[in-house]
Amino acid sequence: MKIISHIKVGVFTSVLSLAIVLAGCQSAPSVLGAEAIHEAVKQGDVSTVREAAESGNAEAQFFLGLMYEKGAGVEKNYKQADAWYRKAARQGHALAQNNLGSMYYYGKGVEKDYLQAFGWYQMAARQGIPEAQTNLMYIINN
């Protein structure tokens, strides 16, 4: 299979800002609201994001996964990224589902598994995530 080329973003905050816009308020109730979590992410406040993630907030779990995947404020760790994406994805967080699909597609922190990638991309695509729709079509057509 051909590997999907990714557009490299020079500044990590640009990635986070885009994810914040796309994520909306998909998280479970927690002490912190979505705006506070987004602000903590922008400020690089890992402890606040982690606290919200550990309390079950899907939005915070997604962002903590993203921080681990990119090495933003924490040491890059694909296994941790996978674990946090998975928690958020199981709560229906569409961006986490897409990113978890990519972890499986590329074998980051997990064994490469195109069927798992397909399943996670499909869940995210059904929620209208354009990148997931593109990823899914790529798998289907190749």
How would you explain this protein's 3D organization?
By secondary structure, this protein is mainly alpha-helical. Helix content is 67%, strand content 0%. It is built from eight helices and no strands. It has helices at residues 12-23, 34-43, 46-54, 58-70, 78-90, 94-106, 114-126, 130-141. Helix 1 (12-23) runs antiparallel to helix 4, helix 3 packs across helix 4 (58-70) and helix 6 (94-106) runs antiparallel to helix 7. The longest helix has 13 residues, at 58-70. The protein is globular, with a radius of gyration of 14 Å. The chain starts with 11 loop residues before the first helix and ends with a helix. Residues 1-18 and 24-30 have low confidence and may be disordered.
Strand content: under 5%
Amount of helix: 55-70%
Q: What is the element string, with H for helices and E for strands?
A: HHHHHHHH
Report the C-alpha radius of gyration, rounded: 14 Å
User: Mean of residue pLDDT?
Assistant: 84
Structural class by sheet pairing and helices: mainly alpha
How would the global form be characterised?
globular
Which residues form runs of ≥5 with pLDDT under 50? 1-18, 24-30
* Total beta strand runs: 0
Main sheet specs: none
Helix count equals 8
Please report the distance between the alpha carbons of the first and last residues.
Answer: 6 Å
